[in-house]
Amino acid sequence: MSSSQDLTAQSAPDTGASTNAQASQEAARLGRAYHACGNVNIIVDSCADFAPEVAQALGVEVIGFPFVMEDGEHTDDLWRSMSAHEFYDRMRAGDRVTTSAVTPGHYLEVFERAAAEGTPTVYLAFTRGLSSSVDAARQAAEMVRSAHPGFELYVVDNLCPSAAAELLAIEAVRQASRGLTAAELVAWAEEARYYIHGYFTLESFDALARGGRIPPAAATVGGKLDIKPELSYDTNGALTLRGMCRGRRKALRAILADFKENYLGAEGGDDHLPMAIVSSDAEKDARWLADQVRKEPGCSDVPIIHSSVSPVIGAHVGPGMVALLFWGKDRREALSFTDRIARRVRGQ
Fold first, then answer.
1. What is the C-alpha R_g of the chain?
2. 204 lies in a domain?
3. What's the CA dihedral at 253, 302, 202, 191 to 10 degrees?
4. Are 78 and 43 within one domain?
5. Which end of the chain is more exposed for a tag (fewer CB within 10 A), N or C?
6. Each residue of 189-203: pLDDT tens digit?
7. How many helices (H) and strands (E) does the chain have?
8. Domain identity same for 139 and 177
9. pLDDT, tens digit, for every residue of 60-70?
10. pTM for the whole structure
11. CA pair distance 264, 327, nearest whole angstrom
12. 154 and 213 housed in the same domain
């Protein structure tokens, strides 16, 4: 990358970008502070699309989600056993990928280890808006709390798909290193998750059609007309369609427009917070997007974390997804007044 602040995942060495020393040192500093503090054990999962070196530096445990390809079941291990390029090339060749929720038994193993260690633990879970796994995590957590009275164990729906969850975890580690207790960190995360934005586009509708999320006919028409969607996620973590664009470049520019509208940066006093750009084997467009972000006022030195879309999310979006994720305005402010009423009724 042209910027000295870009941090590229080790899983994508073919991009031509190098890991930046300053960004790596910042990740390592957070990791050291986390271990030195030791007051909260933070657990995340692979659907946060972590850059592997970031997860390692932060010292968080990453629960690998399962997925199945034609050669059998795999566990998402942050691209250690299969490169992102290989995975998406197999999808391009017709290998169908399916996913399933993590079982309560698997969560039970993870949480029992945490209980044995004894440090208050917070699991920032993949959003209920896209997976029922968080329900299994809560079941397992209840069993562990019953077996270990007094052990602090919290499960938080991050409401953030993909690397939005990575950004939440990075800042959660920093807040823990500054002294937040586990209970305070839960309250912090439940508020902070609404300030992370994510906008993305897809190369085609094929994976969405295979997963039953859109009709096959719609995917066919979209392909013939070169229609590219711009998508995001709502305050419940579910995917939302923001618009349809004729052509890839217009979709990428739509992402930039939403970034300009919602990013606060120095204006909000948060210009130190990193952004994230993830792609499903679409590094050229990811680099273009990063270059455009760099041209925006106040963004020339903000750390940008680059990583690959995980197999679990990739199974549903297919090759060619590109996403920009960042801290910005409170997303609840964009709710209609009827949605605001509904949230108040639910006590949210």
1. 19
2. yes
3. -110
4. yes
5. C
6. 999 999 999 999 998
7. 13, 14
8. yes
9. 999 999 999 99
10. 0.87
11. 8
12. no
